[in-house]
Amino acid sequence: MKKFHHYITIFASSTLLLSACSVGKKYTRQEIAMPENFKNSEVVLTSDTLQLSWRKFVQDPLLTSLIEKALSNNTDVNVALLNMQQLELAYKQSKKGLLPTADLSIGANRTWLSSNSLNGSLSDQFIGTPYMDDYSATLRLSWEADIWGKVKMQKEESMANFFGQKENLSALKTRVIVQVIQSYYNLIALDEQLKIAQRNVQLSDSTLNMIRLQYNSSLVSSLAVEQAEAQKKTAELLIPLAHQNMAVEENALSILCGGFPQGIQRTASLDDTIVGDGLATGVPAELLSRRPDVRAAEYAVVAATSRMGLAKAAMYPSLSLTPSIGTNSIQFNKWFDLPGSIVKTIAGNIAQPIFQKGALKTNYEISVIEREKIALQFKQSVMVAVSEVSDALAKIKHTEQRLQLIHAKSNALAKATADAALLYKSGMANYLEVITAQNNALQNDLERITVKREKLNAAIDLYRALGGGTDTLPPNTP
């Protein structure tokens, strides 16, 4: 017995020593050659890596209320929060990997033995019954030594998954914020398009009345009246289209905010909209810490690195201890008669996979390739992030130039429309020149609204591309 205990001691000591071994590779961020500056960037670069809160970026109380509602009620956000809770539970569970498992089993059975068998004849002779009872209660422990650092790698994978989901949640919230802002501004742009259409209907109606008077005086043909009526219908067609697009946009924004379709209260015009100015773009390398989607992609590489180590550890031997203690008796009244009914067992096991048809090696090779794929996706996410900032900067720059040109064009067309009307009244211009001037002014006004909206969307895109800012952190961080 002393010799047996000696072997067990040696086994346990060896297990503890081997527990310091690890076959997994520690994660290190791959080298990514980042550019020094963003393309199209003409702002002063700073080292400020703080994210701009959406409450500072958005300064419209009506829009602020919509964003708050969306962050609280949006279905996708709430599903992501539940996913986080699942991953948090998995992470907490992984931290218990070094603890043993314990099982308690209690059983009682009665067996009627064959009288012609040895056990049956002995049972009848010594017990005096044709059956044999067996009462047992056993507490069994099982503990596997973490020889190759498997528990640590499982914990690292669970932690990476949790924090990756946390970053995904931040990215989702930023995306929801951006979608709400863009939808809100789309509604305001539609309001302005409706006003432009209504003004042009009134202007076209005035022109049509003037041409009809001249037609009644036989100064112009019926063609002039028909052309003027067609011009008026062109403006009138914009009115139901604007109402249709408003209804669709309001419905989409209501769903985004987690409610059923309803009307959306909004600011009067695009000129009244205020978004954060002077976004500090910083340098491209800062996107690694700013962008939640980039951070999530890196956490995916961390998790893949841990899975690769686990796949490798599966090819190595595992050591486990399985002690148990309990009671056993053939008589119920002596079931817990201590110490006579006590049963003790201690066992050590070494399991080494020998032939698994190459499955373990294949799984490891697949995990290596999978990690390489995810690492490439991380690199791609960094390149996309830099590109999105550059795209937004280019849009801001060139939409501003377009707005200046459209403003100058608007002044020229306004004068041309007024002059055409005066010249037509004095007989120095024909009706086609009046209609053409009005149509050009209408199209230019519509284009001005479109470019204004593009400039706002570019600022919103830049805000998102730089990482955004959701103000809130997911609860219950491990």
Mean pLDDT: 85
The low-confidence parts are 15-20, 43-50, 472-478
CATH architecture of the largest domain: Up-down Bundle
SSE string, helix = H, strand = E? HHHHEHEHHHHEEEEHH
Please estimate the helix content: 55-70%
> What is the fold-level CATH name, i.e. the topology of the largest domain?
Outer membrane efflux proteins (OEP)
Strand content: 5-15%
Query: What radius of gyration results from the CA coordinates?
Result: 39 Å
Gap between N and C termini, in Å?
47 Å
Structural class: alpha+beta
| Major sheet description | 6 strands, antiparallel
Strand runs, count: 6
Q: How many helix segments?
A: 11
Shape: elongated
Full CATH superfamily name of the largest domain? Outer membrane efflux proteins (OEP)
> What is the CATH level 1 assignment of the largest domain?
Mainly Alpha
**Domains (count):** 2
General description of the model:
By secondary structure, the protein is α+β, with helices and mostly antiparallel strands. It folds into two domains: 29-98 and 148-317 and 366-466, Outer membrane efflux proteins (OEP) (Up-down Bundle); 101-145 and 321-351, Outer membrane efflux proteins (OEP) (Single Sheet), CATH 2.20.200. It has eleven helices and six strands. Strands 1, 2, 3, 4, 5 and 6 form a six-stranded antiparallel beta sheet that branches. Helix 6 (150-216) packs antiparallel against helix 11. Residues 15-20, 43-50 and 472-478 have low confidence and may be disordered. GO terms for molecular function: efflux transmembrane transporter activity. It holds the Pfam family OEP. It is a lipid-anchor. Residues 432-459 form a coiled coil.
